[in-house]
Amino acid sequence: MGKYIVKRLLLCLLLLFFTSMIIYAIMRCLPSSYVENMARELSTRPGSKSYSEWLAQLNAMYGLDVGIIKGYFQWFGNAVKGDFGDSWQFSVPVTEKFSEVIWDSFALGAISFVLQILIAIPLGILAARKQYSRVDYAVTVFALLGISLPTFFFATILKLIFSVWLGWFELYGKVGRFHEQLDAMGKFLDIASHYVLPVMTLTIVSVGSLMRYTRTNMLEVLNSDYIRTARAKGLPEKRVINYHAFRNTLIPVVTILGGSLPGLFAGAMVTETLFQIPGIGYTSFLAIRSGDIPFTMFYMTFLALLTLLGTLIADILYAVVDPRVRIS
């Protein structure tokens, strides 16, 4: 197992190198860049230099006067040293801006991720045990609603019901107007109350796919020969389901959960925008739209690293949930 992990980590580094190179090339090839927009704006000022003069000066200032390959290796050399540069859009170091906005998105993603597991897996197993019953149909309808309807629809409905009609929660924002006047516990509860609707939105739109996936795999396992053998031996139904069937159901589910790791840090652009929460999703959208190469490179490379690690963790967990899986 140790050799396998080392080999996979080395492969992850190689893949990360080429992934970051592709991201850099795409950012450099965008039809409109941050430098071009700035040069166009500066050239319109009274008595200013021409657009082409500003463009040449700004390209040299931001290191864009070299080719894509050379520019990438300049970025890569600085990144290896831990220097990711300053964000062009936000005029602060990339790591400083990232650490400022990541934790709101992580809190939303982590809470909704835990709720997704606690809701989807038990309901998926319950639907499989009671196939074609009213419970199964109800779970199926709930899952299909979560899969089919868009995020902004659920967010709007939740705000209409709980904010406009009932008045239980605020429509927007991360904190209330009297946040600074509260004590520590009051501030925590204030932030928590503003997180309720965004978390509900993220949970509803993400729980359906895992629920259906769990149900499908549980049905396949329950129809297996070893499950019929366990029942024929007189084992209690609870032990058959919770021990023999559930453990084998986890094998494909682990793949989804391992791939969900980047989602904890990726942010939810639509949800954060609708509820005006300054998380990494909305911030990265602003950076990509403006052509902010330093921030976009750090953010996208960070997500690529998490994706590779999530895949590695899922492969390792196969051996944990299934004793038959071993790596030679």
Main features:
328 residues; mainly alpha; MetI-like fold; 75% helix
Number of helices: 14
User: What is the terminal separation in angstroms?
Assistant: 8 Å
Strand content: under 5%
In the CATH hierarchy, what is the superfamily of one domain?
Answer: MetI-like
Tell me how many strands there are. 0
CATH architecture tag of one domain = Orthogonal Bundle
Could you name the ranges where pLDDT drops below 50 across 5 or more consecutive residues?
none
Topology as a string of helices (H) and strands (E): HHHHHHHHHHHHHH
Secondary structure elements and pairings:
Elements: H1 2-28, H2 34-43, H3 51-61, H4 68-80, H5 94-129, H6 134-148, H7 151-165, H8 184-222, H9 225-232, H10 237-259, H11 263-266, H12 269-274, H13 280-290, H14 293-321
Descriptive notes:
The protein has helices at 2-28, 34-43, 51-61, 68-80, 94-129, 134-148, 151-165, 184-222, 225-232, 237-259, 263-266, 269-274, 280-290, 293-321. The chain has 328 residues and is mainly α. The chain has a domain at 100-291: MetI-like (MetI-like fold). The radius of gyration is 25 Å and the shape is globular. The mean pLDDT is 84.
What can be said about this structure in brief?
The protein has 328 residues and is mostly helical. The protein is 75% helix and 0% strand.
